[in-house]
Amino acid sequence: MANEELAASLSAVLGGVAVADLSRLSGGASRETWQFSANERMLILQRQRGGDIRDMGNEFAVLRAARAGGVPVPEVIAASTDKSDLGAAYMILSHFEGETIARKILRDDQFAEARTHLAQDFAVALARLHSIDPAAAPALLPTDQVVQYREALGALKYSHPTFELVFRWLEQNRPPVGPHCIVHGDFRLGNIMVGPDGLRAVLDWELAHIGDPMEDLGWLCVKAWRFGVRKPVAGLGEYDEFFEAYARAANVAVDADVVRWWEVLGTLKWGIMCIIQTQSHLGRITRSHELAAIGRRVCENEHDLFLALEGKW
Amino acid sequence: MPHDVPTAQQLVESVREWLERDVLAGTSGRLQFHTRVAITVLLMVERELELGPEQAERHLERLQMLGFGSDEELSRAIREGDDRTDSSIEVQEAVRAAVWQSVRDKLAVANPKYLDADPS
To answer: Which residue of A16, A32, A126, A195 is surrounded by the most CB atoms within 10 Å?
Structure first.
């Protein structure tokens, strides 16, 4: 679809508003992101790509539920899975000013004040998300991540003794089944819009599913998401203060051992994702020495797993 | 030796030095970032050419001490709870120690700084 044609279609789905300044922001693997103004209000368009088989309808249902539940997220202005509107499933979202690049958020002076409370901001946002009745997003499915990633590793036909050891540990130390909540599934720096005042919006909901709320806490603590900073919670906070902030906001106790189980699973997941990324180079889908090099980062994940489990096997 | 000088390691080193000396300074933005990635990759290859043959020998020795001939066999045994990996706490510890040593060897090639980093 040419830009003029897309602008005209956008105007039509928004009830005839004046669409201007349409520009492409980025091209992720699963969707295109565009920015434009509608009657001089800045908006974001996300349009699904052909290869992505997920139902975008789930994602905008979750966004609406999260917003109603007090989680800072973009407002869904219009959305449809009907491809006849804009040539693909789409969401039109309100625009937020802010920064998503983790290294800037963790290091730039303009975020120094925000860094003193971002971990608490995250705890409050997650507590609000997890308090939403999952019936608000009825199409979301529960997933068993251990089974899912075992299958993913099996399909790659790689032998990884470390991952086998960790899968065994995860299976033998699985925490009791927790409450069924809406979990974000990829809550970490990179997917969160931050301003000098703190958390502005939680983005990238395409991995949302039904699961144990501690999954989101554990994933946020995975070492890769500290981006080289010592502090264990997203490079921003200590475990204790983060767990206390979440417990206060959610009015539930946080069991550090359960979060640790999810952190270990998250570290393993990231390791398997690194293999998948390098496969897109090796499989000649996207030839790139950057993707090729990611395959050699798997041993960093393995080392993290041994450190995390030292004395706990 | 079937080949003339330079060695493979010296050839890779020469390209890496050229990237560092001439290319990096003349690039910016995305191209410079990808040049840095290329330098990192070549450094990795240089380390593998230097350390790889001895690491391969030690890797096989570790596997054989546990009663295996390949990572594939070891992985399957762990997955199935085979006696060779699971019969006692001592055996489990020996398996983990061997696998962790293999991970350290991989890091010595892929990113030796990671081994020195504060484990936090």
So the answer is: A126
